[in-house]
C-alpha cells in the first residue's frame, strides 16, 4: 500500500517536473536591455527611439529599407506606380491581418495617414507626410496619393517607423494606441509595466509566417554598466547603447558577441549664421583647418568614423568623391585665413554643447583646445538637452555641436530640414540661409527619379561641404552586443533591428 | 494629542499650496519646452505649434496653474505629456517600488547602524570601535553610485549570488528579497553610517549621566544598564535622525533606482524633468512632499513613546 502510494507520488512529480522543464525548454524568450524608457506604443503619437524600437516589432510600414543594401523595398505594399510627378498609386499586400483580427487594407492606410496629419491629434512626426494633398481609396488594395509638389523623399518617408500602419478598429476602441498597440507585425502586445518592461508574443497569423521566438521582453535598464553586467550574467540576451569604455570587457567575454557597423547618425560643429563672424566663410574655413578630427576620434573608443560630407557614407546621396573636399589639419593656414578675415589676433566666442551624452562635452573640450591654437578663445557653455534644444531653436548660440540621426537614410531628409532657409527657426538651427544652397536642395526634393536624385544630392552635398554649412566631425559606429546563443540579429545603418528573423538556443 | 495631529494636518494645506506654486513656477520658468522635446530635433515649426496647442502651452501661465490646481482639488494630477498616462497611475505603479526600497534601506541602515553604534560605544577605544567608525566614515563619504556598481560586480557578476538588477515588486517573496539586497545596501549604507555615529556619541553622552552611575552603584550589570537605562534615553536623537533620513531615503532613491533598474518614483521624476514633462514632475513632487511631511509628523509622535515627559498640548 505504502509502496503503491510512493510509486504514484513519484510518477506524479516526475510528470510535473518533466512537464515543467519541457515547457521551459519549448518557450523561446529573448530579453533586450533597453537604455531608455518607452514613451508609448503608438507610432502616431511618439517620436523617441525607445518607442520606435518596440513599435518596429509590432507595426509595419508600407515600404522598408533592406538592412543590407539600403534599397527601398515594399513591405505592406506590393508595388507602386507614379503616373505623373504628383501621383503615387500604391498596390497593397493581400491577406494581411492586424493583431485584433481585422483586415489590413487601403482603408486602414488612409485612416492611419489622415490621423497622422490631423492637427487635433498633433502627431510629432506629421511633417513626414506633409506633402500629401489627397488620399483616395481606389479599391480595397489600391490607393492613390497625390502630393502638393513633386516629392522625392516620399518613399523614404513611408519607410519611417512613425508612418507605420495602425488598426483603425483598435483606435476606435481605445482612443489611442499608447498602451494598446495593434499593428500587423510579427509580434503582438502582451503586457506593459509602465517604466519597467514590455512583453510581446509571437503573432501566429503573421503574413510572412510565424517568428521563431515565442516571446520578446524589453526591460528598461538606464545605467550602461548595469546593462553590461546583466548581459554578462545572462539576465538579458542583448543590449545596445554601449559606451566605448565598456567594449573591451565585452569583447573579451567568450559568451558574448559584439557587432559593429557603420551607421547614419552624424555629429557636427555648427555655426550661428546670424551672428558675426560666423557668416564669413574665411572664418569657418579657419576653424575647419584648426579642428583635427583624427584627435577627436581617438577619444571615441571606435564609436565614430570619419567622413567630411554633410551627407554621410551610409546615407543616400553620398558619393566617395566628397572626401576630396576634406580640410587638412593646418594651423598656419587657419591663422592666415583668420587674418584675411580681419582677425589677426583671433577673437572670443562661445562654444555651446549639451550634457545629454558624455561625448558632446568631450568633443567640445577638444575643439576648444584645438581652435585656441589659431587664436579663437571659446568659452564652453553646457546645457541640459531640453534647454539646449530651446537655445539652438531660438538662435542664442554661437558655435554649437549637434547631431542628426538620418532615420530616412536619404540625404534629402537631412539637408532640407537642417539647411534649407524655409526651416530657419525650427529644424534649421544654424539659421543657414543661402539662396544657392536652397536651389540645390529643392532640386533634390522635387525629383522622383532616384538615379537623378543621387547626382543632385551629391551636388548639394558638395556645395554645403565647401561652404561649411556645418563641419561634420564623425559619423556613428552602431554597436550591439548579444549572448552567443542569439542568432539572426541584423542591425540597419540607423541602428534599428527586427526580432522577426532572430532565434535563441 | 488628537488636536495636535489635527493642527499638524491642517498645516499641510499651506505647505502643499506653497509647494505646488514653487514647483509649477520652477518648471515653467526653466528653459526648455515640452512640445519641442516631444517633437524632437526633426520637428517642423507646424508640428511644434500643433503640439503646443494640444497641450495648452499657449495659455498664460496663471491659466495653466489654475488648471493644475483645479485638477488637484478634484484628485486629478494630470496626464503625462510624453506617455499620455494619468500621473496618478504612474505614481501608483512606481511608489510601492520606491517605498519598498526605502524601507529595506532603512531596515539595513538601522540594523547595521544601531548595532555598530552600540558596540562601538560600549567598547569605546577598542579595535572594533576604530574599524567600525572608519567604515562609517567611508560609508558617508563614498558615492552610492560607486558602491552600487562595486557590490554588483562582486556579488552578482563574480559570485553570482544575487541578480544584477531589476525588481519585480514582490518584496514578500525570496526572489524579491534577493533583488532588494544590493539596492538597499547601496542606499542604506550612508544612513547606517550616520546612525552608527549618532548612536555612539549619544550613548557615550548618556553613560556620563549620574543616574547611570547610580544604576551601576546598585550593582546592575553592563547589559541591563545599557539595555534599560542608556538605550531608551540615547535613542531620541537617533529616532530623529532616522525619521529625517527616511524622508531623505525616499527622495534620494534616484541614483540607486537607475543603477539597479528599479522602476521607482525617483527615476520617473528625473526622466520627467529632462523631458520637461510638467504634469509628472508636479504630481510626483507633490506626492513626495506630502509623504515627507507625514513622516515628520509620525516621528514627532514617536518621541512621546520614548520619553513620556514630552507632551503635545
Describe this protein's structure:
The complex is a heterodimer of chains A (505) and B (313). In chain A, a hairpin with a 2-residue loop joins strand 6 (132-139) and strand 7 (142-147). In chain A, 32% of the residues lie in helices and 23% in strands. In chain A, strands 1, 8, 9, 10, 11, 12, 13, 14, 15, 16 and 17 form an eleven-stranded mixed β-sheet that branches. Chain A has a four-stranded antiparallel β-sheet with strand order 4-5-7-6, covered by helices on one side. Chain A is globular. Chain A has helices at residues 2-26, 49-58, 106-117, 154-158, 168-174, 224-233, 247-251, 281-290, 293-298, 331-340, 358-372, 385-394, 412-419, 435-446, 450-466, and strands at 29-34, 63-65, 72-74, 77-81, 87-92, 132-139, 142-147, 187-193, 197-202, 215-220, 238-239, 256-271, 304-305, 347-354, 376-383, 399-404, 471-483, 486-487, 503-504. Chain B has 313 residues and is mostly helical. Chain B folds into two domains: 2-87, no CATH class; 90-274, Orthogonal Bundle (MetI-like fold). Helices cover 77% and strands 0% of the residues of chain B. Chain B has 13 helices and no strands. Chain B has helices spanning 2-29, 34-39, 45-55, 61-73, 87-122, 127-141, 144-158, 174-207, 210-217, 222-251, 254-259, 265-274, 278-306. In chain B, helix 5 (87-122) crosses helix 8 and helix 8 crosses helix 10. In chain B, 39% of the residues are buried. The model of chain B has no long low-confidence stretch (mean pLDDT 86). Chains A and B meet through helix 6 and helix 12 of A and helix 2, helix 3, helix 5, helix 7 and helix 12 of B.
Amino acid at each position: 500500500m505504502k509502496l503503491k502510494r510512493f510509486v504514484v507520488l513519484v510518477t506524479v512529480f516526475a510528470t510535473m517536473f518533466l512537464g515543467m522543464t519541457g515547457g521551459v525548454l519549448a518557450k523561446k524568450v529573448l530579453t533586450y536591455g533597453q537604455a531608455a524608457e518607452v514613451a508609448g506604443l503608438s507610432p502616431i503619437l511618439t517620436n523617441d527611439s525607445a518607442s520606435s524600437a518596440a513599435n518596429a516589432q509590432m507595426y509595419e510600414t508600407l515600404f522598408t529599407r533592406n538592412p543590407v543594401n539600403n534599397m527601398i523595398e515594399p513591405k505592406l505594399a506590393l508595388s507602386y506606380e507614379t503616373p505623373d510627378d504628383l501621383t503615387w498609386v500604391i498596390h497593397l499586400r493581400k491577406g494581411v491581418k492586424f493583431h485584433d483580427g481585422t483586415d489590413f487594407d487601403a482603408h486602414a492606410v488612409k485612416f492611419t495617414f489622415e490621423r497622422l496629419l490631423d492637427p487635433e491629434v498633433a502627431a510629432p512626426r506629421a511633417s513626414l507626410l506633409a506633402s500629401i494633398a489627397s488620399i483616395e481609396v481606389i479599391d480595397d488594395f489600391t490607393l492613390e496619393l497625390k502630393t502638393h509638389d513633386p516629392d522625392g523623399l516620399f518613399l523614404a518617408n513611408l519607410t519611417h517607423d512613425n508612418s507605420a500602419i495602425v488598426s483603425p478598429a483598435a483606435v476606435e476602441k481605445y482612443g489611442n494606441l499608447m498602451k494598446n498597440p495593434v499593428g500587423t507585425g510579427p509580434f503582438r502586445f502582451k503586457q506593459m509595466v509602465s517604466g519597467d518592461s514590455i512583453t510581446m508574443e509571437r503573432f501566429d497569423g503573421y503574413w510572412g509566417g510565424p517568428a521563431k521566438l515565442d516571446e520578446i521582453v524589453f526591460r528598461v535598464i538606464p545605467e550602461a554598466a548595469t546593462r553590461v553586467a546583466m548581459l554578462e550574467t545572462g539576465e538579458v540576451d542583448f543590449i545596445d547603447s554601449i559606451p566605448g569604455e565598456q567594449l573591451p570587457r565585452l569583447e573579451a567575454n567568450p559568451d558574448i558577441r559584439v557587432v559593429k557597423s557603420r551607421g547614419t547618425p552624424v555629429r557636427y560643429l555648427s555655426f550661428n549664421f546670424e551672428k558675426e563672424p560666423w557668416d564669413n566663410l574665411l572664418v569657418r574655413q579657419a576653424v575647419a583647418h584648426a579642428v583635427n578630427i583624427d584627435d577627436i576620434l581617438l577619444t571615441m573608443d571606435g564609436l565614430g568614423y570619419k567622413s567630411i560630407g554633410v551627407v554621410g557614407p551610409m546615407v543616400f546621396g553620398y558619393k566617395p568623391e566628397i572626401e576630396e573636399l576634406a580640410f587638412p589639419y593646418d594651423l598656419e593656414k587657419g591663422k592666415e585665413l583668420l587674418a584675411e578675415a580681419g582677425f589677426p589676433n583671433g577673437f572670443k566666442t562661445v562654444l555651446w554643447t549639451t550634457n545629454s551624452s558624455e561625448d558632446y562635452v568631450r568633443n567640445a573640450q577638444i575643439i576648444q583646445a584645438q581652435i585656441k591654437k589659431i587664436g579663437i578663445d571659446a568659452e564652453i557653455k553646457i546645457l541640459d538637452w531640453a534647454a539646449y534644444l530651446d537655445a539652438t531653436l531660438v538662435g542664442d548660440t554661437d558655435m554649437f555641436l549637434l547631431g542628426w540621426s538620418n532615420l530616412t537614410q536619404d540625404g534629402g531628409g537631412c539637408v532640407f530640414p537642417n539647411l534649407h532657409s524655409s526651416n530657419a527657426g525650427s529644424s534649421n538651427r544654424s539659421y543657414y540661409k543661402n539662396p544657392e544652397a536652397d536651389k540645390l536642395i529643392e532640386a533634390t526634393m522635387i525629383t522622383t527619379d532616384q538615379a537623378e536624385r543621387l547626382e543632385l544630392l551629391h551636388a548639394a552635398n558638395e556645395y554645403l561641404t565647401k561652404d561649411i554649412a556645418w563641419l561634420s566631425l564623425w559619423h556613428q559606429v552602431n554597436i550591439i552586443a548579444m549572448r552567443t546563443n542569439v542568432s539572426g540579429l541584423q542591425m540597419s545603418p540607423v541602428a534599428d533591428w527586427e526580432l522577426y528573423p532572430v532565434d535563441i538556443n | 494629542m488628537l488636536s495636535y495631529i489635527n493642527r499638524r494636518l491642517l498645516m499641510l494645506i499651506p505647505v502643499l499650496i506653497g509647494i505646488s506654486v514653487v514647483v509649477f513656477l520652477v518648471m515653467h520658468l526653466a528653459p526648455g519646452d515640452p512640445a519641442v522635446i516631444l517633437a524632437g530635433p526633426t520637428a517642423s515649426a507646424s508640428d511644434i505649434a500643433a503640439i503646443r496647442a494640444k497641450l495648452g502651452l499657449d495659455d498664460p501661465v496663471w491659466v495653466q496653474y489654475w488648471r493644475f490646481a483645479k485638477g488637484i482639488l478634484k484628485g486629478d494630477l494630470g496626464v503625462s505629456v510624453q506617455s499620455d498616462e494619468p500621473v496618478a497611475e504612474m505614481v501608483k505603479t512606481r511608489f510601492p517600488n520606491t517605498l519598498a526600497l526605502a524601507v529595506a534601506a532603512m531596515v539595513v541602515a538601522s540594523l547595521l547602524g544601531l548595532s555598530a553604534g552600540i558596540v562601538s560605544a560600549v567598547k569605546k577605544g577598542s579595535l572594533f570601535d576604530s574599524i567600525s567608525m572608519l567604515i562609517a566614515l567611508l560609508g558617508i563619504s563614498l558615492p552610492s553610485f560607486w558602491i552600487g556598481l562595486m557590490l554588483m560586480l562582486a556579488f552578482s557578476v563574480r559570485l553570482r549570488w544575487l541578480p544584477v538588477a531589476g525588481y519585480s515588486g514582490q518584496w514578500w517573496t525570496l526572489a524579491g528579497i534577493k533583488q532588494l539586497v544590493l539596492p538597499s545596501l547601496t542606499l542604506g549604507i550612508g544612513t547606517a553610517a550616520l546612525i552608527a555615529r549618532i548612536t555612539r556619541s549619544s550613548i557615550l553622552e548618556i553613560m556620563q549621566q549620574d543616574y547611570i552611575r547610580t544604576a551601576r552603584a546598585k550593582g546592575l550589570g553592563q547589559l541591563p544598564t545599557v539595555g534599560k537605562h542608556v538605550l531608551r534615553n540615547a535613542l531620541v536623537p537617533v529616532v530623529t535622525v532616522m525619521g529625517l533620513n527616511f524622508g531623505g531615503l525616499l527622495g534620494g532613491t534616484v541614483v540607486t533606482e537607475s543603477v539597479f533598474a528599479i522602476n521607482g518614483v525617483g527615476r520617473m521624476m528625473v526622466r520627467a524633468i529632462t523631458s520637461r514633462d510638467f504634469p509628472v514632475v508636479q504630481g510626483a513632487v507633490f506626492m513626495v512632499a506630502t509623504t515627507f511631511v507625514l513622516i515628520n509628523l509620525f516621528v514627532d509622535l514617536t518621541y512621546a513613546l520614548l520619553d513620556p515627559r514630552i507632551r503635545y498640548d
